[in-house]
């Protein structure tokens, strides 16, 4: 176990870094790491079953994070396109795959349909990761892609019920009964999550958060994600990953969602990297030349059937060309669910072992091609928009925020002794603001006062971006910790370059660094010096110095202190 974990993480890092150095996606390096430590080369380092288990956890955590950002309103906004569109795309891609299976692999009609279905289901892990890396997951393409992927996942749930029934040669009535049971199980699980989980999970996490322990909160988030996934798979027959997705959706509707996403994201990234390593582990280099024509035909069926089919369907539903291209390119690959369907079909004796090679080759090649397809889609979008001259589809609407959309507002990070004074001053003049507060009780107090408050660690990107820094006019960092203040400033400048910032600190060296970062467009204050200047101002006025003269003296002393810092 130890050797497997170390080999996966170490080689994924080394080869992923090498891929990035060569200006290629890091996931190519992860897949190469799987090939290196796999059983097909001398000196195998990894145990395949353990890597597969870690990969399943990775997919579940990844979908949990996706669910945290996915609101039911988003699915309702795109269901008119995503639901019928995904069904049509799956049917088209399955038909192409069946033709490949019958024509090149000599499969029976039933086996070729199972083979075609494996070539028709996108990889949720790859699609969401690729869209996230290009900043598309939170926009209109991301919402439509997520709706599409959820619909595909539901098809997989029913396919896993149908495959054993088809392999057993059951009659139509028996198959219909199995499908009905699967539908009832899925509906029952969804109702339990919406009625009970919707209240119980946020309630439990809020109680943990009030205790003030970050470690316990992180464990509670993981327990919620993986616990619900286990219950979904063991009691309701829903896939492990889909159960975690439902847990994320439920928690995402609560005000603990931002911090839950921040806690889950690092682990999700590590385990999703292991998922790509597991793809490389499955790739047997010795079978690459066994069925080269079938491998290429399977890849073409994936790209044309999923990518091309989705593009045509979305354009027919009058989705904007840019959104349609990005979604089609993002989902034009197969992955974890295709492997699962293939293994189930092989175990049931529905398809022969020989189908593994073409499916694995199509999966690896399409996963590697996904970032390149997204880049090509963005380049092609202006040309297609010009040719079709079509506006954005009404079916894709922006997500609703928990408070009215603010423009040119101030972001105050921290509501302690310093931050509370700033908040009071801004509220006195009815100025728009959003507060980011790490203490759960403090965030609840602010919300009770009608102040927009985001609970969570502002140094986590998921939490900070909930305060809409791209629309903010000013950021006030009232945190006592210098490294935290630096990270918040970095996130703010990345979201809105040049945004003015006011930051507190406790050392002259930190003031000097911050002044360089702010470059005159903001203010860095050292608490002890400002206290001393305030006391000097009061003393001068108490001893008869005019207020304007006292203020001028304070300004001179502050300027000299800053000059001394810069010189020293």
From TrEMBL:
UniProt superkingdom: Bacteria
InterPro entries linked: Cation/H_exchanger_TM (IPR006153), Na+/solute_symporter_sf (IPR038770), NAD(P)-bd_dom_sf (IPR036291), RCK_N (IPR003148)
PROSITE patterns the UniProt entry points to: RCK_N
Domain annotation RCK N-terminal: ranges: 407-524
Membrane topology type: Multi-pass membrane protein
Pfam families: Na_H_Exchanger, TrkA_N
Subcellular location: Membrane
One GO term (biological process): potassium ion transport
Main location: membrane
Annotated TM spans: 49-70, 77-100, 112-132, 144-167, 179-196, 216-247, 267-289, 296-317
Molecular-function annotations in GO: antiporter activity
Keywords noted in UniProt: Membrane, Transmembrane, Transmembrane helix, Transport
Record's GO cellular component terms: membrane
Family of this protein: Belongs to the monovalent cation:proton antiporter 2 (CPA2) transporter (TC 2.A.37) family.
Protein name from the UniProt record: Sodium:proton antiporter
Species of provenance: Falsiroseomonas algicola
Biological classification of the source: Bacteria, Pseudomonadati, Pseudomonadota, Alphaproteobacteria, Acetobacterales
